[in-house]
Amino acid sequence: MANREGDYGLIYCKNEPGDYIYHPRLVPLKGINVEVEVSDHVATVTSILQYENNEKSPIEAVFVFPLPGDAAVCHFSAKIGQTEVVAEVKEKQEAREEYDDALSSGQQAYLLEESEESPDVFSMTVGSLPPGESASIRLVYVIELTVEADDGLRFCLPAVLNPRYQPPGGESVSGWSSQQPVCVVYKPYSLSFSARVTSPRPISKVESNCSLDPLQYLNTEQTQATVRLAGSGILQGTFLFAPFRKERLQSDGHKFDRDIELLVYYKDAHQPAAIVEAGKDSAKPGSLMGDPVIMLSLYPEFPEAVMASLAPCGEFLFLVDRSGSMQTSCHGGEGRIGSARDTLLLLLKSLPMGCYFNIFGFGSDYDHIFPASVEYSQSTMDKALKKVKTMSADLGGTEILSPLEHIYKQPCVPNQPRQLFVFTDGEVCNTKEVLDLVRSNASSHRCFTFGIGEGASSALITGMAKQGGGHAQFITGTERLQPKVMQSLRFALQPAVVDISVSWDLPKGMSVTPLSPPITTLFRGQRSLIYAQLTGDASGVSEGSVTVKYSLADQPSQDKLGFSLKPTKDTGLTVHRLGARTLIRSLELEQRDQQGQQDGAEEKKRVVELSIQSGVSSAFTAFIAVNKGSGEAVQGPLIRRDIPVSRAFSDLGDHPVQGRRMMAGPNLACLPCIMIAMVLCWAPMKLYDYIRKCLNRHTDSQEVDCGGEDEAPEEPPQPRLPPIDPLLQVITLQKATGFWTLVPELTAVLGKTHEEFKKSKPLTVTEEVWATILALIWLHGFKMDIQDEWQLLAMKAVSWVRAQKVGCVAECVEAGNALLGCKVQKDDLGL
User: How far apart are CA 25 and CA 642, in angstroms?
Assistant: First the structure.
């Protein structure tokens, strides 16, 4: 078998003798068809990949691609001509050996395996595809949809796989080496994408970060609908970089430069629900696949009186990725690090008085603003903001493990619950090691994570939040980071729920086996999922119930949900597979915990048995299919071909290459030039002239002779700075305790002269009260569409005004409305 240590979603390049440019190996992947079935808040995804070998020799095609980290891959098959071969799940080493044996004997074989380092990376190997032959590969997985800040349900089809940064001396994920050359930018395969949505409740709308055809309802109740990606099925162009080559093929359709996201909105969506799914008829009763499995969706509601009586506090630690990949964005505009700076400003202004905080930056190394967490005050906030303004993506690679270890070694502040906020593009290779560290410290903190940009590792982002008892968010394309961060801050300010327990009320003769790990965190209004296996006979009883009990501020509370014991049939075993995937992940964690004390063999054995029984992938198993066909061996030497998958080219800053020759001939380009070229190919500017300048700038390289004409080096054009957001200007001027002062900077943003503001001020109030009420009126009058971003700092301002015991608030609001041209009511402000 050919070596599987392949390029991570990129093509290798081969230089023929006498050529001056690199030629990519021909790629046999012709197209991908994706069909998504969304049922309420669960999705079944079917991907069909079309391969065709146009070469003169048999090939082995290798495709390394991303999947959501919590997806349950449950089907893998291949169709050659009229013959379909369905893969079986086997222990990974056994599957690899069977694959090798098949290729050695000239048979066609297909292997699908999950990366042992990160569960959101898979590799598919199509072996012994004869010349002129086509193959259709079918891959199916099921996944839960995540709940967004605006109550939408998010589905993401990963289309971008970025290299995962590997610290020096470490072992790479699936053989990825960030030092391998790159010379292909566009991908020569097409994508067709469609989705069908069904729900017990009406579907309000479906949105996407990509262009969609209009939503088509299938019934009058609007509980069924279909939607498809605009331009689906149109072949993408291929752009090969070479010195002084300017042409670029134009094409419509999805460009594989971003993940495909759908946001599904239902009317009255987030209500407690239960699904009981019947087992497989052919499976043994008493087994996971033979018994009914229940999926519970719980949305706890905390008592208003308890929530209102609690003063927010905490130790807030902000860990910000400052690696090179945070410098720019794939879609133009301000870089990711700029968005992170703005978000830190908003967070610092929204923190409650009396809390503690600190800010950490990490890359190849890490730093912090304060040696230890400090109490939140005007002086500490000012010092932190001064540092934040100069923060840049200048710390090299993405090594998150060391700063996490440093944070966890710091003693917690007494009576201040620790809340860790992590901002990263998630390009790390030691995902499981990071998750294990977060999990081992889960009792001392809550972890809130934010995956920034295309290709962020879903396994890392969701895994850290899940193991740390927090909440995960993803920010892609032109989405704003701020509203999602503020939602997580509101979660963090909620008091910790303790003493959580789950009890079942089932008829005699029935028992329950939990498949989900114990619930450790509850947030008001957020979904909690529970999977469980139901064993036994209901004896004519048709109803059961589950009760979740917990304590909040020493006050016991509970939520109860009833469900039918009549299982739903013909559902495709979606709930069973999601339950199996949940249990597999828990067992894999136990296996890693045991490795330090034993060899973890027993846990690994249980994972393999469960994976084979359920047909769901795991870190220790793989899908293997062998097509014996007519029994005739494929003739000729087997050639390996690596399939490209898209990556966010701005992320190249994390992966420097030193002393690596890329081209041969009189006009040569070193890798920095090619890296620049790949970024520029997305920008509307002339590549030709810019590369000529780059070639001249790199003539001092000892490893690469860049050549070029004798012209003076020129600096690249400086990007235009984005205009300063008026909202951020107003927020910047707010003091830590919540008030504003009547300074010219504030009056300029509000659109009047300083004299006009002073002249309109009621005589009986101070300038600080007047400025604060004006700022509140401006926020409510002009920025209500993004209220989630400034709501917490406005609450601080309202509390401060109330503390001043102002007797003429109504007069101030009336005067402020007249001055700013607004119609905001006093009650709207909370005064």
Answer: 8
pLDDT surpassing 90 at residue 624: yes
CA pair distance 158, 462, nearest whole angstrom: 14
Write the CATH number of the domain with boundaries 311-493.
Answer: 3.40.50.410
- Above pLDDT 90, what percent of the chain? 34
Give dist(CA 797, CA 777) in Å, integer.
11
Tokens in use for 609?
A: 């048995």
Strand, helix or coil at 583?
A: helix
Strand order in the sheet with 273-277: 273-277, 293-298, 528-536, 510-514
> Are the beta carbons of 304 and 526 closer than 8 angstroms?
no
User: What are the boundaries of each domain within the chain?
Assistant: 13-264+615-643, 311-493, 726-829
Nearest C-alpha neighbor of 447 from the set 423, 472, 468: 468
CATH of 13-264+615-643, one of 2.60.40.1730, 1.10.10.10, 3.40.50.2300, 3.40.190.10: 2.60.40.1730
Stretch (H or E) spanning 534 = strand 528-536
Q: Which of 460, 330, 336 is nearest to 393 (CA)?
A: 336
CATH topology of 13-264+615-643 equal to that of 311-493? no
| Token pair listed for 677 | 């070229």
29-39 and 42-52 strand pairing? antiparallel
Report the distance separating Cα 133 and Cα 140, nearest Å.
Answer: 23
Residue 3's pLDDT band (boundaries 50, 70, 90)?
Answer: very low
Contact 384, 369 (CB under 8 A): yes
* pLDDT one-digit tens code per residue, 449-469: 998 877 678 888 888 998 888
Give dist(CA 629, CA 627) in Å, integer: 5
pLDDT range class, residue 774, cuts 50, 70, 90: very high
How far the first Cα of the chain sits from its last, in Å, is 73
pLDDT of residue 6: 34
